[in-house]
Write a structure and sequence with these properties.
Distance between the termini: 51 Å
Order of helices and strands: HHHHH
CATH topology: 434 Repressor (Amino-terminal Domain)
Mean pLDDT: 82
CATH architecture: Orthogonal Bundle
Strand content: under 5%
Number of strands: 0
Low-confidence stretches: 1-9
Radius of gyration: 15 Å
């Protein structure tokens, strides 16, 4: 039997909508537009995240952390992101 088999956290699939909904509820906001104003991002950013066209970036996670007081790990867990390591492509650092 796997140690994580009974852990309810392992049942959560990657879903950034869940993260956005929980942050809205925690901050007592009405909708995505109010969340966008609070996080100082353009409303289309949240729409693109909800529709799977844009990932939740580090800047947005930091803004959520600052507004909610939840740790980055807690925020990542809320959307089902279980990665322990992040790899950055070396292509990003090469001059064009």
């Amino acid at each position: 039997m796997d140690a994580n088999e009974n852990d309810p956290q392992t049942d959560i699939k990657y879903d950034p909508n869940r993260l956005l909904d929980i942050v809205i509820k925690k901050l007592n906001l009405k909708n995505d537009a109010a969340l966008a104003r609070t996080l100082e991002v353009a409303p289309p950013v949240l729409s693109k995240i909800r529709h799977g066209r844009l990932p939740v970036g580090a800047t947005l996670l930091i803004a959520m952390h600052e507004e909610t007081g939840l740790s980055i790990r807690e925020l990542r867990d809320l959307m089902g992101d279980r990665r322990n390591k992040y790899r950055i492509s070396t292509v990003h650092f090469k001059p064009k």
